[in-house]
Automatic annotation (TrEMBL):
Keywords: Hydrolase, Metal-binding. SUPFAM superfamilies: Metallo-dependent hydrolases (SSF51556). InterPro entries: Amidohydro_3 (IPR013108), Metal-dep_hydrolase_composite (IPR011059), Metal_Hydrolase (IPR032466), Metallo-hydrolase_Enzymes (IPR052349). GO terms for biological process: cytosine catabolic process. GO terms for molecular function: cytosine deaminase activity; isoguanine deaminase activity; metal ion binding. The keyword Metal-binding applies. Gene3D superfamilies: Metal-dependent hydrolases (3.20.20.140), Urease, subunit C, domain 1 (2.30.40.10). This is Cytosine deaminase. Residues 186-410 form the Amidohydrolase domain. The keyword Hydrolase applies. Pfam families: Amidohydro_3 (PF07969).
Length: 428
């Protein structure tokens, strides 16, 4: 029998009390790992208990607020069919994506692939998503209007945010970077960059923060996505943020090189990150795919950043999907349950702290400025319910029969067919 709240067709309105749910205790303020909860849904929202509505025994099923996926690339997603990574390396990904962008990334192409990605995320239970947008001219002027159209089209289902993505070598006080910052502001986006070692990077970072600050923009960086311990641009970002007094939210992603640095040096960098108030997002699935890849050699180092040490310092840590079916990651489906399962295994989140659920729900929402998910009366009834009563049951299976409720409706979770994109895979 299909796992459902209501027995009839899809898109049902739920007005009921879901009894005997299991919830991560940290989401309710309770002690320990898991606790039991009842949730009453009426008119699309969670309400105080109401004996007049139907009472449904959920038999201990685990419930989460709908997820926030704060680091994705839906502009380049699902191009593997026409642009596979030739060797699985980071350099192979860069070259392959660059060539495909020049050849194929029209507004129609980006829109079709990005909408496909959003339909996947929605079906899996995501309520808010930040995507990075490749922003070398002329692509930014093509892709940002598409993301704005999608944000409007998806309003009420997925809250969409777009972050510019350029190399640090493009940050300066010239016309091109100024025009990009203006375009990002026009479309209500986030200013972002990929940082790597450059002699004048501190100056460029100050120019970046000046441009973002002048336009009231948040900042989001791809940082130190390498196994080279000598790459330390994260330190420079933290120092520039402190020195400039930049007050808007700053997010850094990846930070892989921290994992291979001398412990004292890495810890000192983390002290700077904490002082600067920077948010960190770890992308373990993509980093596992790209890092320490050498033909014919088993990988030794897997690239996950120092999430335990960060959380111990009060640094806000999140996990996210990153790329999907493109040269940077051949797999993935914007499924935050998968991200949670794999992050738990890869980063050993399963012993010690009981509050890692925040890293997939409340912490990324706050980092991006989305409304924080909530399970208290008055909150929207945006829920993901899994047929599992414990963490080991949850992570042992993919939870492909999960229930997703959005604004009090149990949605149709049918995923889009990859064949829909076949016409885009035929290139000249």
């Amino acid at each position: 029998m299909e796992f459902r709240v209501l027995p009839s067709g899809h898109d049902d309105i739920v007005n009921a009390t879901l009894r005997n749910l299991t919830v991560p205790a940290c989401l309710t303020g309770a002690e320990g790992a898991l606790t039991s909860i009842d949730l009453t849904i009426k008119d699309g929202r969670l309400t105080e208990p109401d004996p007049a509505v139907p009472q449904i025994d959920m038999c201990g099923a685990m419930v989460f607020p709908a997820f926030t996926d704060m680091h994705t690339h839906i502009d380049k997603g699902h191009i593997w069919g026409r642009a596979p990574n030739p060797d699985g390396t980071f350099d192979g990904a860069l070259a392959t994506v660059g060539a495909d962008r020049i050849a194929n990334w029209s507004a129609e192409d980006v829109r079709a692939r990005a909408d496909f990605a959003l339909r996947c995320a929605y079906a899996h239970g995501t309520r808010a998503l930040r995507t990075h947008v490749d922003s070398l001219a002329p692509q930014a002027a093509i892709s940002f209007p598409v993301m704005s159209e999608l944000r409007e089209a998806w309003a009420g289902r997925i809250e969409l945010q777009a972050s510019a993505l350029i190399g640090a070598d493009r940050i300066d006080q010239g016309a091109e970077f100024t025009a990009l910052a203006d375009l990002v502001a026009e479309h209500g986006g986030v200013l972002g960059s990929v940082t790597y070692p450059m002699p004048d990077l501190p100056t460029r970072l100050r120019d970046f923060f000046a441009a973002a600050g002048a336009r009231g923009l948040d900042a989001d960086f791809h940082v130190d996505e390498t196994m080279d311990p000598g790459v330390e641009t994260l330190r420079l970002i933290a120092e520039a943020a402190i020195d400039t007094g930049f007050t808007a939210p700053i997010t850094v992603g990846h930070c892989c090189s921290l994992s291979v640095q001398e412990d004292a040096r890495a810890q000192d960098t983390l002290d700077l990150v904490a002082r600067a108030g920077i948010n960190v997002v770890s992308l373990p699935m993509c980093n596992l795919y790209l890092q320490d890849r050498h033909a014919g050699r088993t990988p030794r180092r897997r690239g996950v950043t120092l999430v335990h040490e960060m959380v111990a310092r009060g640094i806000p840590v999140s996990f996210a999907s990153d790329n999907t079916r493109d040269p940077f990651y051949a797999y993935g489906d914007l499924d935050m349950i998968e991200v949670m399962r794999e992050a738990t295994r890869i980063a050993h989140l399963d012993h010690g702290r009981h509050d890692w659920t925040h890293a997939f729900t409340t912490t990324p929402a706050r980092a991006c400025g989305f409304a924080a998910p909530d399970l208290t009366p008055g909150a929207p009834a945006d829920l993901v319910i899994c047929r599992a009563r414990s963490w080991t049951e949850l992570f042992a299976r993919p939870q492909s029969d999960r229930i997703v409720i959005r604004q009090g409706r149990q949605i149709d979770r049918t995923l889009p067919d990859y064949a829909e994109l076949d016409h885009l895979m035929r290139t000249v």
